[in-house]
Protein 1
Amino acid sequence: MTSGMLSTTTPPTPTADTRSAWFRHDRFGLFVHWGLYAMGARHEWLMSREQMTAQQYERFAARFDPDLFDASEWAAAAKAAGAQYVVLTAKHHDGFCLWDSALTDYTVMHTPFGRDVVAAFVDAVRAAGLKVGLYYSLLDWHHPDFLIDGFHPQRDAPNVTELNQSRDMARYREYLHGQVRELLTHYGTIDYLFFDFSYASGHNPPVWGGKGAEEWGSAELLTMVRELQPGILVNDRLGVPGDFVTPEQYQPDRPMERSGMQVPWEACQTLNGSWGYDRDNTDYKSVDLLVRMLIDGVAKNGNLLLNVGPNGRGAFDPNAEHALAGIGEWMRLHARSIRGAGASGFVPPSDVRYTQRGDRLYVHVFAWPFGSLHLLGLADRVEYAQLLNDGSEVRFRVIDPDTAAQNLTQGGQPAGTLTLELPVRRP
Ligand code: JFZ
């Protein structure tokens, strides 16, 4: 990677919003999917996939006792990876609560473990100097008032109509709002909230009994959230616009927009295709690919929220540890091309991403060429170039405009091209 001195500045940020300034600056966060499904160890949707009743699934709660859980180790791992914020699933679709909720007994407090995980998490992440995020599932497959729908474990029950007659979404909505109030009242400042998710009519593919803003009472909920935590950032899965958009397991090909305006966005990505701990899945993304995903997002003014699913004892899988440590090693040398950086107005050659921070342009070379790299439109714009990893000078020359014009007609490089003379071996 090289950096040059440019006579231009970074293009305008997506929004002038000061609330999201830290988020757009930090660029990289760690997502933690942890709950009873970690004990099933075969994907966080197992309750739905295997159509388990609440009673069947409760066997995990009865045995939840993660002896290796240490939130300060999680925070340290996030920090060492170069992440600046951490987001924990306070409640996932299975409805199990990782905090001491007064509104249900289906919490960590009523397991052999008996400790408030959210409290430990918030304290540890805060103490590590990182921003604190919580994930809250709008779906709840355990709550007796949540109307059975096409995602619900009981979706194929022969008496589903009858079962739904005793269920009342208005009561569930009150529970949902009450729980969010707890989370935003009892744990100090919460910087970030990830609601998941809406699938009302219009959802693709369609899901019967789908739910969205109306069922969640999203407008009211959002008003309460902002009252309780004025600085908080909220994602876009409530069915009403939020502070940032969340493409899932997909990298957009340009800065994202809503109504013609650039918006802060964050891609969430798994290490191995599963969010929850998945014991038999060892198909992990390489460190190289993960680093590219991070760079790719920043090059388009976006963030990366990279997920880890701790196991039933509260520990990270060795494969996950390896991935996070590898990203951390890269970040130790290259963080300045990520933090405080964003899209550049210059257009990179193929297999290259540009990130820009102020007048510094960072040239991320995904496919290392033999010897030289031609950068269009950068002639006259660069004073000095160096490898970022070791500070070594990279020599360059400007292709003579006349020659270039001549070359152009012969299929050569257009005028204004700068040629970086790269080391043969990729650093
Ligand atoms: C959801 C969850 O179902 C999943 O278990 C995980 O927590 C993930 C981060 O979020 O999955 C979704 C939610 C929304 C979309 C896709 C997957 N969506 O809007 O495309």
Note: The pocket of JFZ is lined by residues 44-45, 196-197, 248, 268, 275 (CB under 6 Å).
Protein 2
Amino acid sequence: MSDLTLCLIDRPTAPPGESVSIVDADPLQATVLATDFGVNRGDGIFEVAGCVDGRVHALDAHLRRFARSASMLDLPKPNSDAYAEAVRRAIAPLCAQRPGQEVLVKFVLTRGQEMGGTGGPAGWAIAYPCPDFAHDRSGIDVVTLDRGVRSDIMRTTPWLLGGAKTLSYAANKAALREAKRRGADDVLFVSTDGHALEGPSSSLIARINGVLVTPHPDEGVLAGTTQADVFAYAEEVGFRTETRPVLTDELAAADALWLTSSGRLCAPVKSLDGRPMAVDAALTAEWNDHLLARS
Ligand code: PLP
């Protein structure tokens, strides 16, 4: 049996209450047309969620952010019920094969046909085994890279779609290759006016004077579902949290940094631009255990 499972959604933006079919498909056969905007322009949106034993972590938060990304791209609203059903169907066989293990599910909406075709937006959910992130969860080397935008990008240049989870991740992947060339594992993007932003596929959490801080989504960063759940848990156990601009100068005073995301969860930063950072292994493990137990 393949360790990928794909469910296609025939009318991914059908209004609520209208009938939508979800069909199983072979993930290794062509299912998206070569005329699709998503394929040709990266014009579409996606989400990736983690799952264990059929529980999809933060599914509602992912569906809300998916709808928000659609609105930012002027796409029709995705049918959340259909996506939730496709996600559950796609993960079921993999979760059954892998009790207690992490599975990832990606769901996608494209703008539809760029040329020729008459079809509407394409939508699907694909489930796949989670890579082994044990190394990253024990500590990663991170370099800062200039994103080439100011921190007020959302106000001045909203068409750059900061904070939307679009299919256009080529620049994010290029930044990761640059990190590898510099001998690092990952990237922290910074703005031209000296604000720490986010990773190419992760949010930043910094502990500064005992307070957990993360950059504000108004600065063009994606509102992270993992970061939000870490903050909710940390507040319950007595941490103060702040969502606010984080200056790169403040990072020198941080007593710990993490990059957080749905698949890898919390990866503590063990060096930033070659400068060693303290890793709080116990707190990282506590957060990751909490995240894995989420429904
Ligand atoms: N920022 C960016 C640019 C991302 O692509 C991601 C996730 O892929 C995140 C932050 C973290 O978001 P989440 O924790 O919801 O996975």
Note: The first strand starts at residue 5 and ends at 9.
